[in-house]
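Sorry, any thoughts here?
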Amino acid sequence: MNTPTNPVTITAAAYKGFESVVIESAQIRLETVPEIGGKLVSLIYKPAGKEWLLDSGLRLVRKPEYGTSFGEWDMSGWDECFPTINSCHWDEDGTAEISDHGEIWPLPWDCRISAGSIVSSVRNPRFPFRFTRAVSCPSAERVRFDYKVDNLGERPMPFLWVPHPQFAITEPTRVVIPQSMKEMLCVYGGHSLNTGEFYPWDQLSLIAPEVTGDGKKLYYPDKAEQGCSGLYGEHSGDFLCLRVPPDKVPYLGVWVDEGMFNDRVTCALEPGIGYYDSLDTAISNGTAGLIPPHSFFSWHMELTLGNGMDNLTKLYK
């Protein structure tokens, strides 16, 4: 919301050869490239000069080819995974394959400015849906994402969604989740954990910035009572917090890459609709979202940046 106490600007810019759009408040600067799947390429906490998103490093930022694997490209920033994360089959007869990390991250999105928001949308060339995301700054320390998916087809549409923000881990960083989430299920163990086993979260919540070549993915194995997840820098005190309505976005995954796929350490907090990672898995276990024909589903997420554990803790109450 653009008010005298919360001035917000939206401007055209350029990012590594692509046209970009920047939304900026007194405390946050967020940049997106519509042509590359609406990718968010920069998220800066201005009081500290802290860049939260991993850049492409030595990899070129290129326009991805539709239908290719996510790991073939720049592996940076924040992408939207819809209607799956892992490649799988969508339709009932098992003939239509959904791409790795979903169907929208490699496509160019339409973008317009409306009522102080960056509104981006994309229609898929193979499946009958339209995905829309509006980004706004309702307060100086907060970004709001409003999502809507329209089912343009004649059949009910199952789906899975998670954001895939590759947050840069540049100092010892704590993943902060509600205290009620005491155990997490490992769904990808990498070199050090066992897939399918439960682990006490307090043993895994601290991420070091050193590259080890390992990686892991964990999920809270039930619906979350609180829709909060965050990162806290142990040295700087800088934090971010994602908040979602748990009645609409009930699941939470945490991906940590210590150099297994990326060249630096990164963590993705992934509040989600559907459990877990593959749409066919979510359909079989009854957790996938479902949109009736010619209808829509909408949800939102808020991102808060700040400093100090006390201020982060207040967001979980």
